[in-house]
What does this fold into?
Amino acid sequence: MKPRSKTWATPGATAASINPAPLIRAIVQVVQPRIGERIYEGACGSAGFLCESFDYLKAKGNLTTKDLTTLQTRAFFNKEKKSLAYVIAIMHMILHGIEAPNIIHTNTLSENLADIQEKERYEIVLANPPFDGKKRKKRKKRKKGKEGKENFPIRTGEIAFLSSSTSSGFSRRAGAAAS
It folds into this structure.
């Protein structure tokens, strides 16, 4: 069995908050992902929820070749805005055995919730919103939609609220979400 870190992120370097591994593990065990469900973690930081979900699913044993292919190619999806966290998430997933991580280097909050199609929704959404306060205003003139504030029904700069709203926007109606 490989050694486990006590946290999935380094404060300040990758994420606004530290996600304790026991908490992540407990959330994944409560949600009980199954092979064939697509799992999404927006603003993924170091991808702790996805790595723990992968470990949870692999530990079930008796996986077929088809199951293993599904886990490698069609099970885990995430997005990350910060460059360092993006690279760490890729590395973390590869070290856990996910050979081709599906990570997009983008700001999750820049997506308009009204534009999310059913095919872009996931059965399970796991997320710990960044709790670093309000979104910082840029001094440069920004393009419409770039910061994402106008993509939500309630106008606020509170990141935790916006992240939770985004998570629910990516969840299928019959899906599960934990944040």
